[in-house]
Amino acid sequence: MLLVGMAVLASSAQAAGGHHAVDDATILAPRACVADAWVGDSATTLLHLGASCGVGPVEVGLSAEHERSLNSDSDYPSQTGLGLGLKWAHAVDPEVGLGLSYELGLDARPFPPEYALSSFNGLFTWTPSWSARREYALHLNIGTDIVDGRNGGGDEDYSRWGVALEWTPDGARLPAMMTDMGQWSFIGERFRRFEADYLRLGLRIGVGRNGNIDISRQQGVSGTDEGGRWFFGVTMPLEIR
Question: Taking Cα atoms as reference points, which of 224, 204, 152, 199 lies closest to residue 21?
Answer without folding.
Answer: 199
